[in-house]
Each structure stands twice: as structure tokens, then as C-alpha cells.
């Protein structure tokens, strides 16, 4: 394949490679990336021209330091000199132990066990399985989960079942996916106080819903404060306090899905840090390896781990082939070291200020319904679905790679993006929206 020219590569891709959420009948038309360095991608456009463009997406929110990061490159190279992989059943190794120690040091209070998984979706699978086993071991057959509408937790079956039933994939898999309990989507706005009338009305409705299903609910599963793929929707941390209180009152566990929001993406290390009570189970991924390799983790309390282990099976019934992959663990440790060596919270605050300033002109566009920023997440929400291909092309012309979806054109840039590049990035997004949607 390395001998093929770009047109041949794209031709083979069109005929044989299946991209995310794409049709084999109407194939997607991806852009060919030749290389990446810093916060830039070297991309071949539709006309065959090669240009360097700013990555507004952090490669689906994981490349928080950008590309070709010397410290992360060195970690991978060093680990390759020892072993690329070894099974985790019956064996262990330094990178996995070191990573688990680091994660527990960083985790919310109460986390004591780490289960390493292959991807974010798998970590949610493991979390849900652990919650079910926890209750079964105690003689309680609780087989349902409660969540809020608008969420997204992954594309495998258990995470799909707690992903929004309208905007998600429930209708397509009706009759196969379990039917769980969906509370209303809370009112938007991170700064809503606990006594806000809309928030209080939401809490009353959710309280009644939880009570009606309390004997069946094993756990609450929620993306804290920011729903990512559900539309970059932000809500008050008081929502978490309500959900935590209801779970405690009715004997259910709480799972925080911090795959998209963890490691300072919304400002604090964990988005759930804004709430009063930590979760029982935490799922992390995406930024965990700095975008180098797929890796995720499920962390849980001692109570959950010991409760699961007292059951009939005597173990958490999950074990991926590539669990604890040494390469991924080694680069994850280096990534966490890099995050700790920098003022990451300060970097994210700087990015947030630049996004607020740079996206502000979008408020004057007739096509724009809302402009909002939370940490290193900037969103331009439209009144209509985004013309994805056209906005992507228009942004590329302005030197920016962006991948809009639904009705949002958004950015989650690498934390290390300079103020000058952030100005170019935000101008490119606003200009692309103006050019395509007006």
C-alpha cells in the first residue's frame, strides 16, 4: 500500500474501507492525512493540494498535547525495547502497575481498584457489569440503570442502552437493547443554582421517576456536567448532587463516565469534582494516553470491588485480550507525568478565555442559536442541522480541521494550542459557519 499514490489510496479507501457512521452505498469522502506535528495536520484537500491545518478536534478529544510529543514518543520507543504486549491473565508488569497507582492518586476520593480496558465504551461495559454483579452478589436482582436523556456512553450494546433513546441508536435496535430508565434532560447551564425553578422542577420529576423504579435500578450512569456526543450540552453540577442523593437513598451505585470530560477538559481534573459527592465507579479514556493508543479504565471503590468478588462467580467477569497492554500503559504514564509537569488547569483556563473571545462574533450570525464555552470546549450551535461536508471544507480553506455533527460546530483543541493559533482556529470556525449557513 505504501507504493500507491494518493489517488489510489483514496480510491481503495472509497471502495473497501468503512469509516465511522458511514454508508457502503454512499461512501464518505475522507481527507488524506500525510502527517501530524504539534497541533497541525498535514492534509491533502479535494483538489490534491497539501496544506497544514490546525486540529480543532484533538483527534476526537484525545490528543491533548498535540502530535509527535517528544516525551510520549520516548515512552513508546523505550517500552518497545522491552515488550509490546503480554497477556494480563496471570501476569503483570511495571507499566500497568505504575499507571494504576497514578490513576488512583488522581481519582476522586474512595477509588481503590483499577480495571484496565481497551476503549471507553468497553470501560462503560465493565462498569455496568460490575454494578449488576455487585447487586446480584448481595441477593438483589437489579437489572436496570437510570440515566438522563441526551447522553452518550459508547457504541457497544450495554453503553448504547443508556445512550439517549431519541438521538441515540435505540430505535434501530429496539427489542435487542435492554430498556432502562431515562430521566428528563436537565435544564442547560452550568451556573444554575440549586434553587433555580427549572432545576427544582427537574429534580421533582426525576425523584418521582427514581422512586417508581428504585427496586430495579442497579446504578445511575451519567456524563458529569457535560454531555459530549449528545450535543456538547452543559448542565448544573447540582444535577449530580440530586442523582447521587437519590442513588444513596435507594441503594443504587453511581457511575461517572468521564471518558470525554476527564483530565481537565472542562476545567477541573474531573468534571464531577464540581459535585459534592464522588461516584462509586469512574470510567476514563480518550485523553488517558495523550491520543497515542487506545486505552481506558474503570475505577471503583473497595465496597464495589469486594461486593462483586463475594458473588457466585467470585470475580469480575471480564477479560479483554489486550487488557493492560504495556505500550499503552507506558505512554499513559508518560502522558499523566506530562499533564502533572504543566499547569494544565491554567492551560485550559487560557484556552477557555481564547474560545470565549474568538467565538463571540458567531452570536451575530442568523444561523446561530447559541454560543457556549466550558473549559477547553467551544460550541457554536445552529438553528438547523450542520451541512457537515460544506462546513468542513470551508474550515479547511481557513486552515482549520473540524468535524461538526448534528446541529453543532464545536472545537476541543489540544491544551497546548497557542493564543495565536486559537485566534486562527476560532476565526476559521466562525467564518466557515458564516460562509455555509449565513
Keywords:
single chain, 438 residues, alpha/beta, seven-stranded mixed beta sheet, four-stranded mixed beta sheet, 13 helices, 16 strands, 37% helix, globular, PyrdxlP-dep_Trfase_small, cytoplasm, Adenosylmethionine-8-amino-7-oxononanoate aminotransferase, EC 2.6.1.62
Question: Quick gist of this model?
Answer:
Helix content is 37%, strand content 17%. By secondary structure, the chain is α/β, with parallel strands linked by helices.
Structure description:
Keywords: Aminotransferase, Biotin biosynthesis, Cytoplasm, Pyridoxal phosphate, S-adenosyl-L-methionine, Transferase. Its EC number is 2.6.1.62. The record marks 21 as: Participates in the substrate recognition with KAPA and in a stacking interaction with the adenine ring of SAM. It is an enzyme of class 2 (transferase). It is a single chain. This protein is an alpha/beta fold and 438 residues long. The chain is 37% helix and 17% strand. It has 13 helices and 16 strands. The strands form four sheets. Strands 4-12-11-10-7-5-6 form a seven-stranded mixed beta sheet, sandwiched between helices. Strands 1-2-3-15 form a four-stranded mixed beta sheet. Strand 8 and strand 9 (233-234) form a beta hairpin. Helix 5 crosses helix 9 (302-309), helix 7 runs parallel beside helix 8 and helix 12 (388-397) packs across helix 13.
Amino acid at each position: 500500500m505504501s507504493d500507491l499514490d494518493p489517488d489510489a489510496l483514496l480510491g481503495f479507501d472509497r471502495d473497501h474501507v468503512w469509516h465511522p457512521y458511514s454508508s457502503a452505498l454512499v461512501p464518505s469522502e475522507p481527507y488524506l492525512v500525510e502527517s501530524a506535528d504539534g497541533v497541525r495536520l498535514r492534509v491533502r484537500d479535494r483538489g490534491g493540494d497539501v496544506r497544514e491545518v490546525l486540529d480543532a478536534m484533538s483527534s476526537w478529544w484525545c490528543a491533548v498535547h498535540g502530535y509527535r510529543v517528544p516525551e510520549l514518543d520516548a515512552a513508546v520507543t523505550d517500552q518497545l525495547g522491552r515488550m509490546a504486549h503480554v497477556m494480563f491473565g496471570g501476569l503483570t508488569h511495571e507499566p500497568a502497575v505504575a499507571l494504576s497507582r497514578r490513576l488512583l492518586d488522581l481519582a476522586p476520593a474512595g477509588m481503590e481498584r483499577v480495571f484496565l480496558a481497551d476503549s471507553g465504551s468497553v470501560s462503560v461495559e465493565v462498569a455496568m457489569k460490575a454494578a449488576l454483579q455487585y447487586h446480584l452478589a448481595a441477593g438483589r436482582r437489579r437489572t436496570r440503570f437510570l440515566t438522563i436523556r441526551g447522553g452518550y456512553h459508547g457504541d457497544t450494546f450495554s453503553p448504547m442502552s443508556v445512550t439517549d433513546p431519541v438521538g441515540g441508536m435505540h430505535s434501530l435496535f429496539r427489542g435487542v437493547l435492554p430498556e432502562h430508565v431515562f430521566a428528563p434532560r436537565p435544564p442547560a447551564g452550568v451556573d444554575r443554582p440549586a434553587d433555580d425553578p427549572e432545576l427544582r422542577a427537574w429534580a421533582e420529576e426525576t425523584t418521582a421517576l427514581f422512586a417508581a423504579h428504585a427496586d430495579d435500578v442497579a446504578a445511575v450512569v451519567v456524563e458529569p456536567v457535560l454531555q459530549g456526543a449528545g450535543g456538547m450540552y452543559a448542565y448544573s453540577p447540582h444535577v449530580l448532587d440530586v442523582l447521587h442523593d437519590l442513588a444513596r437513598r435507594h441503594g443504587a451505585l453511581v457511575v461517572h463516565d468521564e471518558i470525554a470530560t476527564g483530565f481537565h477538559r472542562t476545567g477541573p481534573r474531573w468534571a464531577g469534582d464540581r459535585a459534592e459527592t464522588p461516584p462509586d465507579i469512574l470510567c476514563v479514556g480518550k485523553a488517558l494516553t495523550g491520543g497515542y493508543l487506545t486505552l481506558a479504565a474503570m475505577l471503583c471503590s473497595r465496597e464495589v470491588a469486594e461486593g462483586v468478588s463475594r458473588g457466585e462467580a467470585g470475580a469480575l467477569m471480564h477479560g479483554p485480550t489486550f487488557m493492560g497492554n504495556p505500550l499503552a500503559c507506558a505512554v499513559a504514564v508518560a502522558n499523566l507525568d506530562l499533564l502533572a509537569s504543566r499547569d494544565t488547569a491554567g492551560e485550559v483556563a487560557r484556552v477557555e478565555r481564547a474560545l470565549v473571545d474568538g467565538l463571540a462574533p458567531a452570536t451575530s450570525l442568523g444561523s446561530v442559536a447559541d454560543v457556549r464555552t466550558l473549559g477547553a470546549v467551544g460550541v457554536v450551535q445552529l438553528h438547523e442541522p450542520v451541512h457537515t461536508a460544506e462546513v468542513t471544507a470551508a474550515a479547511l480553506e481557513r486552515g482549520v480541521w473540524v468535524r461538526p455533527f448534528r446541529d453543532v460546530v464545536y472545537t476541543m483543541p489540544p491544551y497546548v494550542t497557542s493564543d495565536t493559533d486559537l485566534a486562527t482556529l476560532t476565526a476559521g470556525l466562525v467564518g466557515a459557519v458564516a460562509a455555509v449557513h449565513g
